[in-house]
């Protein structure tokens, strides 16, 4: 197996590495990402604050009991996908026409793809 050629670190541009960042810069990058994640989680609020409370648990469980298959892949459904991201809009959040049965894997990948997760550009 051939090794990747070494290239300059994206942060310091001095040290050569086969990765994105050199061993000196990696802890700095990881600390920055950890701080950004904490700040994001503070702004985002808890799941209860975003509307996923006991009323949601009861309603989603009842709705999913009649829809057993993921809309995307056909595996058993585990959660409800909001077709249009509600972004705090309670009317859209509770609109059952905006609900779609989904498995967790498909829901997570759809959200990341459309709402900008994992470095993807936001599409909405």
Description:
This protein is α+β, with helices and mostly antiparallel strands and 124 residues long. It has two domains: 8-41, no CATH class; 54-119, no CATH class. Helices cover 39% and strands 10% of the residues. It has four helices and four strands. It has helices at residues 26-44, 54-65, 90-94, 104-115, and strands at 7-8, 16-17, 79-82, 99-102. The longest helix has 19 residues, at 26-44. The model has no long low-confidence stretch (mean pLDDT 88).
Give the class from helix and strand content and strand pairing. Answer: alpha+beta
Order of helices and strands: EEHHEHEH
Compute the number of strand runs.
4
Widest sheet: strand order? Answer: 1-2
Please tally the helical runs, counting DSSP H or I stretches of 4 or more residues.
4
Please mark out the parts with pLDDT under 50 across 5 or more consecutive residues, or reply none. Answer: none
Q: Describe the global form.
A: elongated
> Overall pLDDT, averaged?
88
Strand content: 5-15%
Using only C-alpha atoms, the radius of gyration works out to: 20 Å
Number of domains: 2
Largest sheet: 2 strands, antiparallel
Taking the alpha carbons of the first and last residues, their distance comes to 42 Å
């Amino acid at each position: 197996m051939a090794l990747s050629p070494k290239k300059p670190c994206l942060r310091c541009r001095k040290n050569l590495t086969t990765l994105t960042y050199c061993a000196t810069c990696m802890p700095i990058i990881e600390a920055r990402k950890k701080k950004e994640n904490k700040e994001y989680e503070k702004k985002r609020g808890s799941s209860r604050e975003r509307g996923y409370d006991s009323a949601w648990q009861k309603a989603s469980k009842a709705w999913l009991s009649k829809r057993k298959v993921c809309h995307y892949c056909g595996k058993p459904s585990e959660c409800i996908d909001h077709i249009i991201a509600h972004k705090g809009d309670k009317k859209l959040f509770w609109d059952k026409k905006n609900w779609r049965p989904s498995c967790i894997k498909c829901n997570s990948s759809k959200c990341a793809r459309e709402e900008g997760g994992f470095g993807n550009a936001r599409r909405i």
